[in-house]
Amino acid sequence: MQLGSLASPASGDRTVCCAGLPSTPLQATEPMTYAPPEPASDGLPAETDRAAARRGLGCALEIVETLVLTLVIYLLIHNFIAQPFEVEQTSMLPTIVQREYVLIDKVSPRFADYRRGDIVVFNPPPGYEQDNVPFIKRVIGLPGDTVRLENGRVFVTPPNGNPVSIDEPYVIKEADGRTAPTLPKDLAGTSSWTVPSGEYFVMGDNRPVSQDSRVFGPIKRDLIIGRAWLRYFPLDRIGFLNRPSYAHLPDAVGSPAPSTSADLLPYPRGSSATIQLSMARS
Fold this sequence. Notes:
The protein is of the alpha+beta class. It has 3 helices and 14 strands. The strands form 3 sheets. Strands 3, 4, 5, 6, 11, 12, 13 and 14 form an 8-stranded antiparallel β-sheet that branches.
């Protein structure tokens, strides 16, 4: 180690001895930088991404499958089992009020004919359409019957039978409480019809305003969409739409005629009192 002396500019001849410094010059320190770790050599991160993508695709496919299955089930029920229907006319007052919703049975008519007293929803005959809105009426005459109007009452003569004046407690009442008369509706004043095979004579319960078979005659069976059997809205009017029985008249083609008239028959009991109570409240 060599010793050297440095002259101090402030002290003149004074010298200071110090240890010799290394001759190698100092180098500047480089800043530290961070490099991300290399992916694992076994490829696990890439595999996890692919699995996540497959799970997302699987979820999307399940959602699509559920939507398609729901649509298929809805179409099957709507076209072949039952169909909701909003009543837009007043022709079935007081039994069914405008803007009420009913459920149409499409299954039972595939195995049995419509019965007398059934409430049916049907497409109107050609020339009587009203903005593509189906009609809703009550079956009064069956195939082979003769329906006649006389003095405001309805008489039905079954095949090979005698005329029967039918009791219709469901028909709307007039202001004085009497049942509204059933009168001819067409310009010719037609008052008698014979129902052909495969057709039905229908009328609305609101006889003064209903446009029905008194106007366009009996309707073909293939025009009928189904049988209205349940009112499900509004909730305070929910209930089954019961079918009345008619004394001395068969309920269906080929069935025996009851000897007495019952108030209401299945569909299940329950809506008659509800209807009258609701109408009284309104």
